[in-house]
Amino acid sequence: MIQVTDLQKAYNGVTVLNIPGIHIPQGESFGLVGNNGAGKTTFFRLILDLIEANSGEVRIDDQQVKRNDTWKTMTGSFLDEGFLIDFLTTEEYFNFVGKLHAKSEGDIALFLESMKDFFNDEILGSKKLIRDFSKGNQKKIGIAAALIGDPKILILDEPFTALDPSSQIRLKRFLADLQTRFNMTMLISSHDLNHVTEVCKRIVVLEKGKIVKDLQTGEDTLKELEAYFAV
Amino acid sequence: MLIPNLITQEWKKSYRAQGFYKNLAVNIMLGFFVLYIAVVLLFLGFSLNEILEKVDNKLNPMELFNGGMLYFMFGGLVIRFLMQQLNTLNLPPYQVLPIKRSTLINFLLLKPLASPGNYFLLLVVIPFAIKSVVGYYSGMVALRFVLGFIFLIWFNSLMAAFLKRKFGPGLLSFISLVLVAVALGVLEYFKVFSLFELSKSLYGFIVLKPYGLVVSLMFVGVAYALNRWFFSQNYYPENFNRKIKGDKVVTANLSFLNRFGLIGELIGLELKLILRHKRTKSILYMSVIFLFYGLMFYTRKDYATMNGMLFFVAMFMTGTLMLMFGQWIISWDSSHFDSLMTKNIPVSTYVNANYYLLLAFNLISFTLTTPYFLFGPKIIYMHLAAFVFNIGVNIYLLLFFATYNTRKLDLSKTSAMNYQGTTYKNFLFVLPILFVPMAIVGIISTFASMNAALCTLASLGFVGLLLRKQLINLCVDQFNKRKYTMAEGFREGEA
Prior knowledge:
The structure holds 2 protein chains of 2 kinds. Chain A is an alpha/beta fold. Helix content of chain A is about 35%, strand content about 25%. By secondary structure, chain B is mainly alpha-helical. Chain B is built from 23 helices and no strands. In chain B, helix 7 (about 140-165) crosses helix 9. The interface of A and B includes residues 49, 75, 88 and 129 of A.
């Protein structure tokens, strides 16, 4: 599904990401962990063609992402608030994104109904603009909008931070559900080792732009990660 | 002890803002502009005595000046209400520190008085006082005259801040202020009530009597007390930062755009953006004002032969919305650029949506300027040629060069004197767009005829319309090339 080859990104001569090659097959839940500055967000931005690689390429469904629009039809993503359109109300925003994927009003209403549990009655039905929501609720809005187009690939940058405990648990359940029902490919970065090992079947550890561990999640994975990050 | 600290922190806030140095070129240009105005004002100050001596035989220059004081006060209030940014020391971080609240509020209120912009008009007043008032009266009176003027500035600054905080910067309060000003003018004109006489005697008293300045200071004191009262009523920042909550959602029905598919959706999004942000809204108001530009030029005989100038006016009016919004056409989306780039929007659709938006803007401004057709066939031809040139040439230039704006725009501030996000690049591409056609018309109409000039520009426009597809593809390629730089710039943000 996603094939990365020789990917390198440098700022002012300092290499921030260097991945000789990695393949993420369809339906894999791929967890990315690493300390601040390890290159997690850079990696995601390269996959989403928001920054230009110094060398190498990312392919989605065997098509290069660079200067291409095809991957946008099957990718849902939420990295930060820049992925929202903050002067819209939530309904307007979901409608807008839904229309981009040629959804009818009925489809969108159905989708929002399925999100009811995740939204916990805090998101819909108010005339509030997205910029006036709290960080946690903005995150929920962004994640929901990423899902509206039935993506084959879902990319989330630290989805658990800023969410309240109940929402974290709901999100975990929700992601697992998407995985089993739609066989969705998921790329999730997180600082929370517990959550990420629960949700992801494969964990990759980045350090200073390099892949230092690539694990299939098993019983000992959490311990191994904790040992790795222990200071 | 504390106040100097706060001042240095404010100062740090401004020069540590990203882009302060990067924006040097713009700052230097603005600097020259300010210098120019200063020289003009000084010149006015030194010649004001002679000018006023010719105006009226009975009254001496200072009496005339005093008569204008209250007008100056009302006019100043209206202008400040429109332009003056409220001084918003970011209170919350200080509120939790052991600093006395009244110190903070005093700082908040009095700091704007230190802004040099306030005292610009002293460049007129001081030379006038030295040249004229000293001559007619004495040095002491001149000193009081200048002090009286300074107190008037203080009063205006404090009063405008109070009105703005109390009644909000909305359109309604602005209109009521304008109405009051107009009413005063009308009363004066029909000699029902003369503000001029009142002003003359009031300021005569203030300036000539030794204790007159006390009255002036009392005015300042009242304005200050009103502000203090406001803050005592509204203790928490959430009460006086109205803009955080006050923005009402304009839910204009834009569903007719649905018929145009994806492009329609994107245009709808852009229209919502324009209607829901301060900066874009004030550009909209300004564009409406620019539509009246023609009245200034078409009615005057001395401009009738200045073809280049006339064409400039025609082009500016028939394209006002496009020229005002178009120079930032991509930057408007800077806060959600990542969103647009990763959602299911092909790049060519995005560029096309921007194209159609600008096209619609042109149609609107062109239609709104059709009343000028009453000024005769020359104006009609000029407007038509300008319209075709705008939609055939300028539109692509804007789409192409707007990709060089890589600064994030802050849309929450009004645009009067708002240069945030402006770089030398803006001047680099906007000035040619505005002035090259003007030069072409000027040259061709001098050596051939006005018709030849208009035909040339219109033909260029038609060529652009015929090559629409190719030119848009060029803009798409350019966009793809610049996309990463833009995305990076927009993400960086700017304080």
